[in-house]
Write a structure and sequence with these properties.
The complex is a heterodimer of chains A (165) and B (198). With 165 residues, chain A is an alpha+beta fold. Helix content of chain A is 44%, strand content 18%. Chain A has a five-stranded antiparallel sheet with strand order 1-5-4-3-2. Chain B contains eight helices and no strands. Classes of the chains: A alpha+beta (165), B mainly alpha (198). The interface between A and B is large, with 55 and 62 residues.
Chain lengths: 165, 198
């Protein structure tokens, strides 16, 4: 295909623009395994086991969020207090592991560039604690950290992250 | 237990029930998860897309009881949430007006043109020119264009997703396409090394 510049014209046609958009948007097909894993992860977040501690009755979104943060604080307190062994020693319950992608411990840090903050809360000493997750290869990794400015803190403060294959 | 999947609009009777919420999230994922993952992979790259989909459904879970079927389709509602999640993600990445992590490099799945076929070389140049031009768009204009081109939404659904009138979507789309058609060919990417493409 030639570009408009090659043809001496000043602008692409609609067809050329659509072709470029299609090319730029081309991606690898999502595997069924990846999709199934993602579905389990999402449904686990909505599961009654995890939400039992966070939701009851007709809660408002803000109330539910506060309860989620409160539940997260427990997780984070465990993670910050004994991060290196927390996941391996079963500190996180099964539902939390599924939701926050904890599990087997591997000796690497979460990726600061792809990490996503899952929960953040104020700690009793006035600080802020955060829980971050990131994908590492085919595993999902999570790390709790005293939060100041983002995932870099998590990377520095917690070693190693815990991951779920 | 119902014999068919529940629609979000039917949740008012069952939203207190944990298993029903779980079933509803599962049904929404089955209906839209795959397409949403593809869309967010195109916008943010496959490395971030799964987390963004997960984040989107976390918000969906929180807002299930706020969904109003009379104001738009489930699909538009989901893509509206996903668009907000994506914007937060890109903002948190600190990449400013960079359209997406992928667009920042003009990344695509086009085969590497090691064989130097003219068509493939042209395709690479075209993709890089377009990626640069997309980065210069306003966020709202880029979202309109890519929700249609990559998300497969129509103008009405984009209007519902972004909470703007359908006429605004159509005028933005027309203006944006005209801007891209004019600007992209003027961008010189020939001096950039090929390895930056991936």
């Amino acid at each position: 295909m030639t570009t408009p510049a090659d043809q001496g014209s000043m602008a692409w046609t609609d067809e050329q623009l659509d072709a470029a958009l299609a090319d730029l948007g081309s991606i690898d097909e999502v595997s069924r395994t990846d999709l199934a894993t993602l579905r389990r992860r999402i449904v686990a977040t909505a599961s009654p086991g995890l939400n039992a501690a966070m939701t009851s009755g007709r809660e408002t979104g803000s109330r539910r969020r506060r309860r989620i943060l409160a539940a997260g604080a427990v997780v984070i307190a465990c993670g910050v207090g004994g991060a290196t062994a927390a996941a391996a020693s079963g500190v996180f319950d099964q539902q939390t592991e599924a939701a926050f992608a904890s599990g087997n411990t591997y000796p690497f840090h979460i990726d600061a560039h792809t990490a996503v903050e899952r929960v953040s809360t104020t700690t009793p000493d006035g600080g802020v604690a955060q829980y971050w997750t990131a994908k590492k290869g085919n595993a999902h990794c999570g790390a709790a950290a005293p939060g100041r400015s983002g995932p870099d803190d998590a990377r520095q403060a917690v070693s190693p992250a815990s991951c779920l294959q | 237990m119902t014999d068919r999947p529940l629609a979000v609009s039917e949740l008012s009777d069952v939203r207190d029930s944990g298993p029903s919420r779980t079933a509803q999230i599962g049904r929404l994922f089955d209906d839209y998860g795959s397409d949403l993952l593809r869309y967010l992979s195109r916008r943010a790259g496959p490395g971030s897309a799964e987390d963004l989909v997960s984040e989107t459904f976390t918000v969906v879970l929180e807002q299930l009881d706020r969904y109003d079927a009379t104001r738009g389709s489930e699909r538009a509602w989901l893509y509206g949430i996903a668009t907000n999640v994506l914007r937060h993600h890109l903002r948190d990445l600190g990449r400013g007006r960079a359209a997406t992590a992928r667009l920042a490099d003009g990344d695509s799945n086009i085969d590497n043109p090691s064989d130097r076929w003219p068509d493939r070389i042209d395709a690479h140049r075209r993709v890089r020119q377009l990626a640069h031009a997309l980065r210069e768009l306003a966020d709202d204009d880029r979202d309109v264009l890519l929700l249609i081109a990559w998300g497969g939404l129509n103008s009405a659904e984009v209007a519902e997703a972004l909470g703007v009138p359908a006429g605004t979507v159509r005028s933005r789309l027309h203006r944006t396409r005209r801007q891209l058609r004019a600007a992209s060919p003027q961008i010189d990417v020939d001096d950039e090394p090929d390895e930056e493409l991936r």
